[in-house]
Design brief:
about 350 residues; flat; 13 helices; mainly alpha; 4-stranded antiparallel sheet; two-stranded antiparallel ribbon
Length: about 350
């Protein structure tokens, strides 16, 4: 009887030792995988894949043990022969790319904050498509939640202003940088209580014009007035008011900034653009464009360059695109040819 019990205990001990060894191997492989996942980056990474299976230790084609991880394609390939060993891999690295002062990665979840939204994009919302019960109750909760997002006068002001700003940005085909700069200027005006007693539409149009000047994507007052509800005179008045009260650091607009866009609208070639920019630089060196409207100087330079290079455009065509009169083009053209001794 004792011998039977001893044999059973020996068998149990051997089984336990086998289980312990297998658990140790599993833990060792898990630590290896975790160590490899910590070293993974969002770009290309070099890693040696190790596992209990002999087939995954070496490349089945060339026998190499050096592998490359490409998270752009989600593949693991051999560095020697280029054989793809694994596809659709999972990226275990942090989702964010920001790094604090200690060198630690800062994860980021959800959409980033946006200054172009009245709540900076921090509010939440939910849909009713997947709800099967109490849809009326959830619809009331959703309506109350939307109302709470614009509960105060400041939120209502920003919501209306930024909705008009997005419409202006879309109509003028302006980039995101201009949108962010215009929103920042309007927020500063609202913080200093400059909006009280003034039209929101006029102030947001003036902020957009100032943002275009800051970002060197100039638009004329006429172009903004065409897509806005205000007149050219009223937008210019509010722009001067914002520039004075907020002390905006805006450099004078250069005619060179208008040349590429106007040339594209007139379907002129790149040699005409280069020639026009050279003429404007010469005028600037001699001080002949001080106090002149940049759009008028750009129109005269394009008119002269198109005539010289055989891509003639009439004064009427250029005036309709640039937004100046034909008299302005003729006047600037005469001043330009006289100042530079052009034929």
């Amino acid at each position: 009887m004792k011998t039977t019990l001893d044999n059973k205990s020996v068998k149990n001990n051997s089984r336990n030792s086998k289980n312990v060894r297998s658990n140790l191997r599993d833990n060792r492989s898990m630590r290896t995988n975790l160590r490899a996942s910590r070293n993974m980056k969002t770009g290309l990474g070099d890693v040696n894949i190790q596992s209990n299976d002999e087939a995954t230790k070496k490349c089945p084609s060339c026998g190499s043990v050096d592998f490359e991880i490409d998270y752009a394609r989600s593949e693991v390939s051999c560095k020697s022969c280029g054989l793809v060993l694994e596809e659709n891999i999972i990226d275990f690295s942090p989702s964010g790319t920001a790094i604090n002062r200690d060198g630690q990665n800062l994860t980021q979840n959800g959409a980033p904050c946006s200054i172009t939204k009245h709540d900076k994009g921090l509010a939440t919302d939910f849909k009713l498509e997947n709800l099967k019960h109490d849809r009326a109750r959830w619809a009331r909760i959703r309506r109350l939640q939307k109302q709470s997002r614009v509960s105060g006068s400041r939120e209502r002001n920003l919501a209306r202003a930024f909705s008009e700003l997005s419409l202006l940005i879309s109509n003028l085909s302006l980039p995101r940088d201009v949108n962010k700069e215009a929103a920042s200027i309007y927020r500063r005006a609202l913080e200093k209580d400059l909006v009280r007693g003034r039209s929101i539409s006029l102030l947001i149009s003036a902020s957009l014009y100032a943002a275009c000047r800051v970002c060197r994507v100039p638009r004329t007052f006429d172009e903004i007035a065409e897509v806005s509800t205000g007149s050219k005179k009223s937008i210019a008045k509010n722009y001067r008011f914002l520039n004075r009260e907020l002390a905006l650091k805006i450099r004078p607009a250069s005619p060179v900034d208008y040349i590429p866009r106007f040339a594209s609208m007139l379907e002129l070639s790149s040699p005409v653009v280069v020639k026009s920019i050279e003429i404007i630089n010469e005028l600037n060196e001699k001080g002949l464009i001080a106090g002149k409207t940049p759009a008028g100087v750009a129109a005269a330079a394009l008119y002269y360059s198109s005539r010289v290079l055989g891509e003639r455009r009439t004064q009427k065509e250029i005036a309709s695109v640039v937004g100046v009169t034909e008299v302005t083009i003729r006047t600037r053209y005469k001043e330009m040819t006289k100042g530079l001794n052009l034929n």
